[in-house]
Amino acid sequence: MTVQNPAPTAPTDMAQGRARTPARVLRILLWHVHGSWTTAFVHGGHTCMLPVTPDRGPDGRGRARTWDWPANAVELPWDRMRGSGPDLVILQRPHEIALAERLLGRTLGRDVPALYVEHNTPRGDVPLTRHPVADRADIPVVHVTYFNDLFWDCGRAPTHVIEHGVPDPGHRYTGEIARAGVVLNEPLRRWRFTGTDLLPGLARRVPLDLFGMDVAGVPDHLALPPARLRAHEDLPQGAMHEQLARRRSYVHPLRWTSLGLSLIEAMMLGLPVAVLGTTEAHEAVPPEAGVVSTDPRVLAEALHAFHQDGALASRTGTAARAAALRRYGLTRFLDEWDRVLQEVTS
């Protein structure tokens, strides 16, 4: 059955690659670590200098290859970093502190301002896990969720919370394929973190289509036939959005992440969602937008209900889109970032 829905709307200007111009344009050095978050950030209009190495390894990926980024996101070869003169360095991994100081020849927090963006939930002895910059008062931490701010012990480091902002991909939902979409990156390596072990139980109730990086081996590993689980390896973001929007529903089985941007994107596309009720999920998904539960059986039944009732699925997806736009719109995200950036560099 095909769920009837209004014609898809076009993405916003920012999602199409035209960045705004802030009151004071900064030169910001940051590594391309998290593609979706960086996609939102580079639309702020600041000159974003992204280190690039010949092998485009983890510390030199440069510009994204599968996202549409504006021209103010520029690649910066390692051998030109010392003379680059950034106004600010954004850190996202502990080793970037020493790496940036070595390549720039400057001390972070003294010679050049720095911020540490914490994307991840704490590991180790939760909730006692100390943050890597917990003993530094000169490098503020910006958390992407209030859950992270609550659970990380950041010690002397000042903290801010700037919730995610997502470029609007447009209301594309059709629901014509009676399967549930799920997006997981490296699901075999990350396993319980991503809830990969929950997929067989969900797939017994509703067939699944799995999207993401390093997903090709998951069906064989779980001994699930294509009728119950199909894998779609590392599609470009635009193609993945197009495919997700054709699925009847979206399921988010992740146990321990800050808040998956794929969930917000699915909501913005107009999909009804069933979400494991951990970390920040209950904040992101109001009751009219989907089902949130710590019981995977409840999620499976919600997916089945969406698949049985196309009108329910469409109505719930429309509410999910409205909720995601209201809380995770790009303009709010960029405005909040501008306030913090101006404060730190003033």
Question: Which regions have little confidence, pLDDT < 50, spanning 5+ residues?
Answer: 1-17
How many domain regions?
A: 2
Largest sheet: 7 strands, parallel
| Secondary structural class | alpha/beta
Q: Strand order, biggest sheet?
A: 3-2-1-4-5-6-7
- Assign the CATH architecture of the largest domain: 3-Layer(aba) Sandwich
Please tally the β strands and state the result: 13
> How many H/I helical runs?
12
* Overall mean pLDDT: 92
**What is the CATH topology descriptor of the largest domain?**
Rossmann fold
> Could you name the CATH class of the largest domain?
Alpha Beta
Beta-strand share of residues: 15-25%
**Shape, please?**
elongated
C-alpha-based Rg, rounded = 20 Å
Helix content: 25-40%
End-to-end separation: 57 Å
Can you tag this structure with a few keywords?
single chain; 346 residues; alpha/beta; Rossmann fold; seven-stranded parallel β-sheet; six-stranded parallel β-sheet; 13 strands; 31% helix; elongated; disordered N terminus
Structure described in brief:
This protein has 346 residues and is of the alpha/beta class.
Account of the protein in words:
It is a single chain. The chain has 346 residues and is α/β, with parallel strands linked by helices. It has 2 domains: 16-165 and 330-345, Rossmann fold (3-Layer(aba) Sandwich), CATH 3.40.50; 177-328, 3-Layer(aba) Sandwich (Rossmann fold), CATH 3.40.50.2000. 31% of the residues lie in helices and 18% in strands. It is built from 12 helices and 13 strands. It has helices spanning 35-41, 96-104, 146-151, 187-190, 199-205, 218-221, 237-244, 261-269, 281-284, 296-308, 310-328, 330-345; strands at residues 27-30, 47-52, 73-77, 88-91, 114-118, 141-143, 159-161, 177-183, 208-212, 229-233, 247-252, 273-276, 290-293. A 7-stranded parallel β-sheet has the order 3-2-1-4-5-6-7. A 6-stranded parallel β-sheet has the order 10-9-8-11-12-13, sandwiched between helices. Strand 6 (141-143), helix 3 (146-151) and strand 7 form a beta-alpha-beta unit. 43% of the residues are buried. Mean pLDDT is 92; it is low at 1-17.
